[in-house]
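Many introductory courses stop at the sequence. We go one step further.
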Amino acid sequence: MKIPQLPAKAAPGECALALEEAGCLLVTDLLTADARRSVRAELDPQMAKARVIDKDDPTQFYPGRTRRTSGLVAQSESVGRLVLNEHSTSLCDHFLTPNSEFGYQLHVTAAVEVGPGARTQVLHREHDSYTFFPHPRPNMIVASMWAITDFRADNGATLVVPGSHQWPEQREASNDEIIAAEMPAGSVLYWLGGTLHGAGANVANDWRYGIILTYSLGWLRQEENQYLDVPPDVAERLSPELRDMIGYRMHGALGFSMHPTVGERPD
């Protein structure tokens, strides 16, 4: 099975159907060169502080020779716009709202640069933290990787296993089932929470740069603690839509707050 690829003008239903069948989807031409420059400029100060581990430890989840930072909503207005991108929210509407009466939320944000010499990351699933559901698990997470630079097989393009979102837990991917999601800058790779994936090895001389944004059911504990990374004094300055997306709203009876601006008071 291949990674389906569609243009940005593709109909939402066509995108959802492709993602449902393969568990992954590549959409081209979603982010202009100017928008990519804005993302990089706004995140440069934080990325410059990020530690790059020169010596790789194969026992660690994150490979060495990479640079990453999270908490992006508090650092970048451009990333905030990506969070609310209509292609992403349309896919979340399709896959997440059936399992979450009051919607979904931002789950993880991360800027990731994979440098020369980085090893292949172990294949994993986004919903691995939620072990109380048997495989194949219901749709709990929709993930995206925004290509700020070109993603190539030789510079660490994300590896995905199409169709693996429907596999039993014990099945392992063979080499010919693992595909590098090569895509030009400005493209976005989407995958479902049950799809096996991981960063590829970088055997080239350039760094590849991507923005990870994932979304989860509104009643789940977020993997990234948005309330620490985007505290109330920062959340107050966000648009209501973005503030809701990072979790500053109630999900049924869950998450009430006495904060006068960003929270909702109980009856």
